[in-house]
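Dear Dr. H.,

I hope your travels went smoothly. While you were away I took the liberty of generating a structure for the chain from your last submission, since the lab meeting agenda had it listed for discussion. I wanted you to have the full record in hand beforehand rather than looking at slides cold. The sequence, exactly as received, is reproduced here:
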Amino acid sequence: MTDCSESSESCGGRFSQGLAFTLRIISGKWKPLILYFLLDGPKRYGELKRAIPGVSDKVLIEQLKELEADRVLARTDYKEVPPRVDYALTAFGRSLADAIVPLCTWGTENMAEMESLFAKRDASP
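The corresponding predicted structure, in token form, is as follows:
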């Protein structure tokens, strides 16, 4: 079995193609955060909205619909009054969310250095 993690040539470009497909699914400013917060279990819309400060209703709804269309999450409408809907990761979505956890860890471990880099970059003309 070929190890695709070393170079794209070793897999005839499959590694870079796989990365491109993954990025296509999680493209969007808030999708990785949505996946991360759903790792703990199903969440209602309001819970996700509170967990992701700064996201507009329009964008959150749009990104939830895209993730549902990509079979990453499942939307359950309980058909109750008042309306109750929740979102949960599918098995496919859980495997993707699990892959995001190391990125979260890396970001936490390197936060101070990144803040310094971003401050320098933002201060440059």
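Two observations you may find useful: The beta strands are 43-44, 73-77, 85-89. The radius of gyration is 18 Å.

With kind regards,
E. W.
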